[in-house]
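Hey L., structure's done. Input below.
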Amino acid sequence: MSSPTARADAGEPAGAALAAFVRRLPKAELHVHLEGAMPPATLLALAKRHRVELPADDEAGLTRWFRFRDFDHFVEVYLAISACLREPEDFHRLALDFVAGQARQGVVYTEAHFTVSTHVAGGADGAGLLDALAAAAAEGERRFGSALRLIPDVVRNMGVDRADVTVEWAAAARERRLAVALGLAGIERGHSPARFAPHFAAAAEAGLHRVAHAGEHDGADSVHAVIEHCAPERIGHGVRAVEDPALVAELAANGVPLEVCPTSNVRLGVYRSIEEHPFDRLRRAGVAVTVNSDDPPLFGTTLEDEYLRLAAAFGYGPVDLAALARAAFRHSFLPAPERERREREVERAAADLGEELFGAAVALTG
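Output:
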């Protein structure tokens, strides 16, 4: 793998130059949960609006509380976030604050997972949510230059009635140019995706793409199962495919991308460290991999952090990181002309930033 060398006259170490390179590259993110990406400041404002008691009453205290301790604590935080999302304006605030945060780290396009059925089951009006989120996405793109699209998720461990709601909402959101795909999330182990096969078939008929979480807390068989029953065009996580070499070869041959979230996998105990994570093994095996943050404030990360942690663990340099940034656009559900335009933007930015930061253009091939 390539390694960066900062310009002698840059006045900064190679690590700082690489961080600047990552920060300024145009980036896309394909696996981040909208609810789980709520910044502490947003949660604090919504909790005050709805008189919800939290373990802290200031942003610094909430940031400390957000810090991941174990899975039960993660669920506790996630439920508190969900409890503060009640009215359409709450979802508008969440989405707009999220887009602003994405723009600050150079993310110009995001496909965010969103569990709409949970909110509808809790009494929220689906049509009102759609209006609010569509308005927030439009405002965010206009104000911050960062586009947001949604992937409404079917939840494995919930009933098919909730899946029905999700597909219907996703189809309506697609008509508003807000939703791009139907997703599958929830507890893997013990919850086969087979019963949701009709929902994914219906999504395809409605013009939606398909993605599915698998191969995170369950092994390679889980990845096989979603391929069989959901025909996903991307797989969320998917990293435990590495336990089955034949499956890895199949993913590489068929060009099925994985939405990889390294820090999330480590925090949740799937792997002990980034260095032990199979990201690099999968990439070297020819599997299409993208870099993502999952639930960034809950796991103490950002998309920028994910790139830099991979660089530190596997010796990736500017060429590797720019290639990963381009891959996120390449495997997005953007319309082909825009997808290709965004890929060229990454290539031009990498070349220009390379000249500025490293004394030589960073050239991407392929």
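Confidence is low (pLDDT under 50) at residues 1-13. The chain is about 55% helix and 10% strand.

-- N.
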